[in-house]
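hiii, so i know i said id send this last week but things got crazy w the move. better late than never?? heres the sequnce for the chain we talked about at the cafe, plus the structure i predicted for it. fair warning i was half asleep when i ran it
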Amino acid sequence: MASAAGLGQPVYALCFDHNGSCYVGVIAIYRDYYKWYGIPVFYYYESKTSICGKYFLVRSEESGEIIRVSNGIQPGWIAIPIIRLKSKPPFLKLD
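okay and structure toks below
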């Protein structure tokens, strides 16, 4: 997420609850992958606890990326907004 946001690409995270779990993820587009060029892919993380916050704050350092959840933006961090959905998007098959 940080590399795409750092290059000026619009990045946001989608978040929704489904069957007692909280899902958060990003939609990416396959580029230059043979016949799958342009196919959207939803990369997600499933958690049993809800994610409380409005932004993922991301910072890249020599040791790796640091990611934390916050209610606001902070200097020196890349802020990725969390968009909360009322329900699971119909294009996802999670069951």
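btw The chain has one helix and six strands. thought thatd interest u
miss u guys!!
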